[in-house]
Every structure is written in C-alpha cells, then in structure tokens.
Amino acid sequence: MKLYVFLVFLMFNFASSKLEVPLEFRKSWEELAERYRSECICEVGVSPALAKDYFLKGEYSLDSCLHCYIMCNKMKLNLINPATGEVNEHEYVRQAAGITPAIIQKSLSNAFLQAPLGYRQSWEELTAKYRSECMCEAGVSPSKIDDFFIKADYSTDLCVHCYLKCLNIKLNGMDPGTGEVNEFEYVRKVAGATPLIVAQCNNSTKLVKDFCRKAYNMYACILSNVLVQN
C-alpha cells in the first residue's frame, strides 16, 4: 500500500533531518491518534498489541492489518482523503508536530517510486506459469492479480496474500509443511533479492505463523528494500 510507504518515509525523512524524531513529537503523534484508536482497532481487526504506542515507537511494520489501522486513523483525522487517497498536506502540517511541507513533499516523492522495471518484468515472468492455478487455489479476483508484479503495489487483500503463498510454494520459496523460507531459492530466482535483503526479510517474518501473511510480508519487505536501494 503506497500510502503506508508514504507514512514510513515521512518518519524516515523527518528522522534524517533531525538525527532522530524527538520524543515530544512522537508523544504528540501518539496523542493525536489516541482519539480514534479503539474505533480503528475494531474496524480493521488489528492486534491491540501492535497498535499500542505505534507512533511513539515509530517502527516500520510488515503487518497488513496494522497498515489498515494506520490508514483508518489518518482518514479519521482528515490527513488522507478516504475516497481518493490524496494526502491532505495542510492538515498534516497543522496537526502533526514537527512535520513541514518540505518533509511531506520529499516523502510523497519517495513513496511513489517504482521498483526497477527489469525487476518487475522478471517477477511477472517468474510467476506466470502458476498464475491461473494459484488464482483458483486462493480464490482471488483476477483483477487483483493482473500485472500484480509489474505494478509492484502493496495490498491488504487476504486472498492476494494467499495467492502469494501459493506462488511461493510452487516456486520452492516456502516449505508447504512448515512455512520455512528457502533463502537460497529466493536469491536464485527473485531479481533484486540479495542474500542480505532475503536474510533480513526472513528474520523479520520468522514469528509469523500464517503462511499467507508470511508470504505477503516477504514480498512487501523485499519490495521496500529494492525501493530503498534504487
């Protein structure tokens, strides 16, 4: 989800300009989100433990439910238009402590970058032979996976996550019995996935029990690392 990436870059770009985000700003962000916390937790089904102190900690997360929780919060605060996804720069500057127009513009530019076209084409070609089979197995809408890797977007659709799980298993990137990630196969087959990136992403998903979610988190992590590198 590109808007989540925007929020991540918003924190990264702020931190880079200040060495780290000052505690009083992080506290202010947490207080701002507090009024809609319970409502958004119920709306998206995120674990309360993940939502608690999220803005205070300022950590990057691969959890798709948390992404939706953050989107819910931002929409309730009028920071993001719920119909168009457009970022309300005026409201960000007015409500979010320490956020400047320059930081917002830089974050928007970073968040809407694409992974290199060569990588995206390679990912699409790699998965083409299993597309129909995995689409049926996961019950995902064809419109959700048409050129999925070419678009290289983020998704909160659970059927898309299970589609990625199916592809992972077919390509020997994930053990169908244990969910263990095959780092060697990832590096060998996935363009742009270096040993370091794959190891870091695998480490960040080790505690994820749901195979669909784990497959999506690996995808999102690798994509985000490629965007950072390029």
TrEMBL record:
Keyword Ligase assigned to the entry: answer is no
The domain of life for this entry's organism is Eukaryota
- What start and end residues bound the annotated signal peptide? 1-17
* Entry keywords, A to Z: Signal
Record's keyword annotation contains Transferase: no
User: Annotated Gene Ontology MF terms?
Assistant: odorant binding
InterPro entries xref list? PBP/GOBP, PBP_GOBP_sf
Against Pfam families, the record matches this protein to: PBP_GOBP
List the SUPFAM superfamilies: Insect pheromone/odorant-binding proteins
Q: What is this protein called?
A: Odorant-binding protein
